[in-house]
């Protein structure tokens, strides 16, 4: 399955023309031609990189949650990404984000701890996901982080500077979001479609509904039957797909089922209650979900195809000997 993912970062879908140059050019230095034939160079810096700033904002939410009196989780590394002048609207964004983060943390660990042998975890993130470092992963866990390369490199430098380490007997690999073929790169780095895996998405920059469908196509092709895919999606995806004619629940059921997943929308309020937290009622900017793969992965299908071919060939040989 050939699948190229195209993404960008925004609370609502920006135009592809405005974002694509940031992600797919071989350099972060841009030249713009002027009428008089001269050119100016616009350099993508930390201050004007929207993907980097979005990742820092999320890290800031984790940093503040970590230092609350009764935190939902502890992220000892979020502080290395956050500058002292970072300003966030904590009241409206923190609770929802942190509740989702705690939900995803717990779901990842509970799922992985029920796997035998090699445990494969795929994180679709903003590049500053500290889960590979801060969660208590069991041995024989291999983690793949799919995220923007520049953000991931910046984060890796910061994490190395504070001595962050992956748990022993675990492996952590990065797959740049800009990679032309995500599926092929995952396989090259060791992903096995005939082994169980768990997929989680939070913070991955999405540009359009089509880009999310490409994610579903990739996960559907690589995850074994019964594997889970869960996390957060921007709510504008549903508006892109259905406008005002249908409910978000109907939209999410239809799009996931079209790629072979059974999906449940998860209520932030219900998760908050289980965590003994209170969130203000109202519309949320995100959709929390858990989906189960109902189809076989491409590797499973190929394995069975080869087995059937072998059985047929053995049968032909036996028939020839009888003659």
Automatic annotation (TrEMBL):
InterPro entries: Ppm1/Ppm2/Tcmp, SAM-dependent_MTases_sf
GO molecular function: methyltransferase activity
GO biological process: methylation
Recorded superkingdom: Eukaryota
Record keyword Transferase present: yes
Organism in which the protein naturally occurs: Gossypium anomalum
Protein known as: S-adenosyl-L-methionine-dependent methyltransferase
Keywords assigned by UniProt, alphabetized: Methyltransferase, Transferase
